[in-house]
Amino acid sequence: MAFPLTRHRRLRRTAAMRSMVRETRLSVDDFIYPLFVTHGTNVKEEISSMPGVYHLSLDLLRAEIEAVVASGVKAVLLFGVPDSKDAVGTSAFEENGIVQQATRAVKEWAPDLLVIADTCLCAYTDHGHCGMIHHDRRTGHAEIDNDASLEVLVKTAVSQAQAGADIIAPSNMMDGFVGAIREGLDAAGFEMVPIMSYSVKYASAFYGPFREAADSTPQFGDRKTYQMDPANAREALREAESDVVEGADMLMVKPALAYMDIIRMLKEQYDLPLVAYNVSAEYSMVKAAAANGWIDERAIVLETLTGMKRAGADLIITYHALDAARWLKGE
Ligand code: PBG
């Protein structure tokens, strides 16, 4: 009888042995925690499709920020839920816009916590698109005007930096957005504020719960003329390449779970820090199954986040961040 010469199981015999040869380690430093901020006082409204995620007014944001700091998570990503919308997304770039106010408050309460501002217009425009609308002269169809959108996005990014945002994260998928924002930030004296670009953002059904959270569902059409086709991989390299050339400091792939191959591709091609966005429906699916007692939430979340890191993500934006931070401490 022939016995195997190679015995993979030798290195799996004990917990200490497995720990010694473990290739990927999750750390609290990997996580970025998204928050939805809104006007008013005493608002803490749970988003029905995202249990544990809330709309928070600034007075109640403070306790949440203290919980983030206590968890050891180093960065929050701010999304605004404004009280007024118009065709050009004015509330996105006002000095007293909700994200601008929240940014100033967070930097005052917790100066060392990094504030990342999502730079987009969909929550601030009455039509719910990420850019400006114009009507094609020949067909009369409404279209997203790329270059007019860039001007508004630059104003938004500069106002966020003025409010004290540590990192600008443009998620709008207009062509040239990284270059335009870099130039605008530099001209306004913010040459040291990095850009975390949503480089590869797919037109995905996995954003459904977020659109309820941010009230940012497009009022007509969809985002397929600016966000990427989920069937494409090589195009992701072209998208990332322009962001690198235009001066992005970090690249992002979004969503994460169905796009692990894209995370790996970008990791192999580029040296910039790579971010994966573990998006809303990825969170909701876990929460729903866990609420039914069908899965072990803690094990599923840690395995999923480990998978994203193993695929190549250096950082993970996740609604599970505070839970995962606790679980990593063994709590
Ligand atoms: C804004 C934006 C979206 C998300 C982040 N920034 C929604 C969209 O593009 O429709 C989705 C995040 C999530 O689903 O968790 N453009």
Descriptors:
single chain, 331 residues, alpha/beta, TIM Barrel, 10-stranded mixed sheet, two-stranded antiparallel sheet, binds ligand PBG, Delta-aminolevulinic acid dehydratase, porphobilinogen synthase activity
Structure description:
This protein has 331 residues and is α/β, with parallel strands linked by helices. 38% of the residues lie in helices and 20% in strands. The protein is built from eleven helices and twelve strands. It has helices at 15-20, 58-71, 98-109, 146-163, 177-187, 208-214, 234-246, 260-269, 280-291, 297-311, 321-328, and strands at residues 31-38, 44-47, 50-57, 75-81, 114-119, 132-135, 142-145, 167-170, 196-201, 250-254, 274-278, 315-318. Strands 1, 2, 3, 4, 5, 8, 9, 10, 11 and 12 form a ten-stranded mixed sheet that branches. The structure holds ligand PBG. The site of ligand PBG has 11 residues, from helix 6. This is Delta-aminolevulinic acid dehydratase.
Top-tier CATH class = Alpha Beta
Order of helices and strands: HEEEHEHEEEHEHEHHEHEHHEH
Radius of gyration: 21 Å
What profile does the largest beta sheet have? 10 strands, mixed
Task: Enumerate how many helices there are, as a single number.
Answer: 11
Helix content: 25-40%
How far from one another are the termini? 48 Å
The low-confidence runs, each spanning 5 or more residues with pLDDT under 50, are none
Described by its quaternary structure, the protein is single chain
- What do we call the CATH topology? TIM Barrel
Q: Provide the residue-averaged pLDDT.
A: 96
The helix-and-strand class reads alpha/beta
Q: Which ligands accompany this protein?
A: ligand PBG
* Bulk shape: globular
Function: Catalyzes an early step in the biosynthesis of tetrapyrroles. Binds two molecules of 5-aminolevulinate per subunit, each at a distinct site, and catalyzes their condensation to form porphobilinogen.
Enzyme class: lyase
Keywords: Heme biosynthesis, Lyase, Porphyrin biosynthesis
Pathway: Porphyrin-containing compound metabolism; protoporphyrin-IX biosynthesis; coproporphyrinogen-III from 5-aminolevulinate: step 1/4
